[in-house]
Every structure is written in structure tokens, then in C-alpha cells.
Design goal:
heterodimer, A: 238 residues, mainly alpha, Ferritin, B: 280 residues, alpha/beta, 32% helix, 11% strand, elongated, transmembrane (chain B)
Chain lengths: 238, 280
């Protein structure tokens, strides 16, 4: 018993300075660990030693997805311009085709400079609108219903069947369906442009996104006027 | 019990008891617990971040493996079974002409001036090869299948990969020596299973790969009836090309002008007339 008591006393010695050292060491370790974690997060976007926007960034995502989206507008407009008999449709189609193809060239040019493929390699679209990934802090997620892995279909994007249908039509039926598909296409692409305009840190990307929003809003008006004049109803969103 | 004993002991060595008491009183339990909790939390944050980023890096590395870049120009070099051939581009034949292709399905060589629609199109019937090859020159990938061996749910797997996906096309190819053959300009991979992961790897590596197709930025849009009508495309010709067919060298084909000229294509040396010959 006596021995046990002595041992108890020895196990709880006065350790004032020892405790202080322990506290300081632990605090230092904690700070280092947190610093290392922050370092991992902060370093990532520029990990390739260049300042190019990387995979998963708003810039790369916007350039890839918007060029796919735009290129379909070019396909629709190419076909309409080649096959319509209506001068107003032909003029609109020429405007859409030439403007959007030029903008696709800008976006694909950026992708070439950034060493990124033309299309998202995952085969999924709009993942870049799901909010910040590695270079953001958890909890600061942006208000978005986008699943982090992206989606198979972009709003406004026509299906292969719809394209085939357009190609099978002629005369007024062709004009009407072209207007319907193009209106839905313009309106469907707007949220992508809006997101890039709001969230990209690269001025050229922001400027193009803002310009797409403004010019397509004007074109939506024209489309609606042409549709009203022809008694054509808008298609529901897709 | 212990307290009682301690009291009795207190008289014995008051100094040591007092020291123990002071030590006990001065020990900053709150601080120690806070520090331990902090260290554990910090370790947790670091560990979580590290594991998450590691998983992300692995995922990106897996994708990057098949993404063309300046240091990885042709990722298909890592795919087992890919056949590569170098073809001169820009050699055009007329809609009435045939090309004596060296491969089946062909994946390069002279071709019709009108390209096949390659904007994510599923052709239900076999299409004239001369048009399909032109679409490859524009950076598309053509998935061909043997209609006797691939149908139903197997065919649906291939349709899923192509339908509505820009720069892809799918068509049957009668007499194909494997169930599936995937082509891009100068590249071919033949596989036996529609679920072979190499199909997707091939597509990722070569679809619009700026390092491997001749006409960067070229269109895949349908030209329309009279040229190439996607609803009624020129049919595949299963017969052997006759002696009048254009050979792979391009002899008898029209050259597209600014394109690379194959050595065999020029039958006569260029005639320099006196009017174009610079003086001096």
C-alpha cells in the first residue's frame, strides 16, 4: 500500500514548465497541420506551374460547354440558311451562324492555349456550375442545383431526332421549326453565360459571357417577333 | 478510502503533499484538453483534405492519360491494338468515283469532296466509305459495327456513345472482320465487345485531337441533299472496287490545292508556262 501511494505521488509530479512545453508543441503541430491543409487547397489551381485555368475551372468548363452549345446553333443556322426561302430567316440564320462560329473559335482558341480538350473529357456538361471544388472552402457552395459530376444534357440543346426533323422539313414548316428550336436554344444557354459572367476571374471569359447574354437577349426579341408574325408557338424548355 | 489514507499520510510528509496539491491545482486541464482537441481537429482537417485531393488528383490523372496535350500528343499510343497509318490529306474524288481503299473500314486516303454528317449521327444503314473518310479528316471518330454480330441491346450501347455527341458517327459496315471497329484519321482499333473500355479511350484520345487530324476546325455539319443528305446518304458498296477505282496514291483524284501532295499523285511534272515563269 505504501509503495502504491508513493508511486501515485511520483506519477503526478509538479510539471509546470513541462505542461507549457507540451501545450506549445501541440499548438505548433496543430497550426502546421492546418497550414498544410490550407496549402494543399491554395496550391492546387496553379499546380501545373502556369496560371492557366485548369480542369474543372469555370473558365475551362464554360469554354468547352458553350462551344458545344454554340456549335449546335451553327448547325441549325447553317441548315436554315441553306434551305429557307424566306429572306428574313436567311438573314437571321447568317447572323447566328457567323457570330456563334466566331465565338466558338475564340473559346476553342483559349482551350488550345490552356492545353485543354475541346469537349469535357468526362462526357458530362455543366459540372463547372456545381460550385467551387478544390480551390473553394467547403460550406461556401454557390446557390446551384447542379450535381457536382455534371449532367448529360444542356438546356436548349436539340436532340439528334429534332435535328433530323428540321432537316426533313421545307418551306414555312422549316422556318417555324427553326425559330422554335433557336429560341429554346438561346434561352437554354443563358444560365451558362450568366454563371460565367458572375464567377469567372478571367476578364476575356467574363466579357464574352456578358456579351453572349446581351446579344442573345436582343436576338430572343427578334426571334419572338418573327414567331408572332408567323403565328408560331414557343417550344417548352428541355 | 484513498482520501483518508492521504490525510494520515499528510502529517508524515507535508511538503510533498503540498507540492502535489499545488501541482494538481496548477495543472491546466482545460488547456490540455483544448490543445488535444485542437490537434485532433487539425489532423482531421488535414487528413480529410489530403484524402479528398488525392482522390481528385487520381481522377484527373486518369482522365489526363487520354487527354491530348503537348507532352501527350497521341494518347492512343497507350491503347493496345491501335493500328496507325500515315495518309496524305485533301485528295478528293467525284461522287461517281470509287477509291481502292487499303483497309476495311478505311481510315484515311482519297475521299469524296462531300463529307458525311458527323455531328453525333447514328446511320441505320451502311454509308459510302468515300464520304465517311472525309468526315474522319474533319476530326470525327467513326464507330463501325458488323450488323451480323452487333444488334439489339449491344447496338444500343454503341448508339448511346454516339447519338447527339458532336464529331461522332455510328454505322454498320457489312462484312467487318470484328464485331466493332473504331476509326479516326490514320487510326483504327478493332474490338470484339461493345463494352470494351478501349472504345471510350480511343474516342477520348482522338476525337478532334488537334495533333492527329489534318483540318483543325473543319465542320461536321450535314451539307444537304445533292451533296450529302444525312436522311438519305449514298449507300455503301460491298463489291470490290474495279480497275477504274482511284488508288491509295490518289492518282486520278483532284488535289485540294493547299494540301500535302503525296509522292505518287503527280504523274507528270508541273508544266511551267512562259507567262507564269518569273523573269531573271
Amino acid at each position: 500500500m505504501q509503495i502504491t501511494e508513493d508511486e501515485t505521488e511520483e506519477l503526478a509530479p509538479p510539471v509546470g514548465p513541462g505542461t507549457r512545453v507540451l501545450v506549445m508543441t501541440a499548438a505548433a503541430v496543430a497550426i502546421l497541420l492546418l497550414g498544410a491543409a490550407v496549402g494543399l487547397l491554395v496550391r492546387l489551381p496553379g499546380a501545373d506551374t502556369t496560371n492557366n485555368p485548369g480542369t474543372g475551372s469555370v473558365e475551362v468548363g464554360f469554354a468547352q460547354d458553350m462551344s458545344v452549345h454554340h456549335l449546335q446553333a451553327v448547325t441549325l443556322a447553317n441548315w436554315a440558311r441553306e434551305h429557307t426561302a424566306d429572306p428574313a430567316i436567311r438573314q437571321l440564320a447568317f447572323d447566328i451562324q457567323s457570330t456563334q462560329l466566331e465565338q466558338v473559335g475564340r473559346m476553342k482558341g483559349w482551350l488550345m492555349l490552356w492545353g485543354q480538350p475541346e469537349q469535357p473529357p468526362t462526357g458530362k456538361y455543366m459540372a463547372w456550375m456545381a460550385g467551387p471544388d478544390s480551390h473553394g472552402m467547403a460550406g461556401m457552395t454557390m446557390a446551384s442545383a447542379m450535381p457536382s459530376g455534371g449532367v448529360d444534357h444542356m438546356p436548349g440543346y436539340a436532340s439528334a431526332e429534332e435535328i433530323s426533323k428540321l432537316q426533313s422539313l421545307s418551306g414555312a414548316a422549316l422556318d417555324s421549326y427553326f425559330l422554335q428550336l433557336m429560341l429554346r436554344h438561346h434561352e437554354g444557354g443563358a444560365p451558362m453565360a450568366q454563371f460565367a459572367a458572375d464567377h469567372s476571374g478571367v476578364p476575356a471569359v467574363r466579357v464574352l459571357a456578358q456579351n453572349i447574354l446581351a446579344s442573345q437577349a436582343a436576338e430572343v426579341k427578334t426571334l419572338k417577333e418573327l414567331m408572332t408574325a408567323r403565328g408560331v408557338e414557343a417550344l417548352p424548355g428541355n | 478510502m484513498a482520501g483518508g489514507r492521504k490525510t494520515t499520510k499528510g502529517g508524515k510528509s507535508a511538503r510533498s503533499a503540498q507540492a502535489a496539491l499545488v501541482a494538481g491545482k496548477g495543472k491546466p486541464w482545460g488547456t490540455i484538453i483544448a490543445v488535444v482537441v485542437l490537434v485532433v481537429l487539425a489532423a482531421g482537417v488535414f487528413g480529410y483534405t489530403y484524402v479528398q485531393l488525392n482522390a481528385k488528383h487520381e481522377q484527373e490523372a486518369a482522365l489526363a492519360q487520354w487527354t491530348p496535350s503537348d507532352t501527350n500528343k497521341d494518347p492512343s499510343d497507350k491503347i493496345t491494338g491501335v493500328v496507325k497509318k500515315d495518309y496524305p490529306s485533301g485528295l478528293h474524288v467525284q461522287p461517281t468515283q470509287r477509291v481502292a481503299y487499303d483497309q476495311a473500314p478505311p481510315f484515311g486516303g482519297p475521299h469524296d469532296g462531300f463529307w458525311a454528317d458527323c455531328m453525333g449521327i447514328v446511320y441505320p444503314k451502311a454509308v459510302r466509305s468515300e464520304n465517311m473518310v472525309h468526315a474522319l479528316e474533319h476530326g470525327s471518330v467513326w464507330i463501325a459495327y458488323n450488323p451480323d454480330e452487333v444488334s439489339g441491346s449491344q447496338l444500343d450501347v454503341l448508339k448511346q456513345k454516339v447519338n447527339g455527341k458532336q464529331f461522332l458517327m455510328l454505322s454498320p459496315y457489312p462484312g467487318l472482320d470484328h464485331p466493332v471497329s473504331v476509326q479516326s484519321w490514320g487510326h483504327q482499333l478493332k474490338v470484339d465487345d461493345v463494352n470494351d473500355p478501349r472504345i471510350d479511350e480511343f474516342v477520348k484520345s482522338l476525337l478532334r485531337n488537334q495533333y492527329t487530324y489534318p483540318e483543325v476546325g473543319a465542320s461536321c455539319d450535314a451539307l444537304g441533299s445533292g451533296q450529302f443528305d444525312p436522311a438519305n446518304p449514298p449507300a455503301f458498296d460491298p463489291s470490290k472496287p474495279g480497275p477504274d477505282a482511284v488508288p491509295m496514291s490518289g492518282q486520278g483524284a483532284t488535289n485540294n490545292g493547299d494540301q500535302r501532295q503525296p509522292s505518287g499523285a503527280m504523274t507528270t511534272p508541273p508544266v511551267v508556262t512562259s507567262t507564269t515563269k518569273p523573269n531573271g
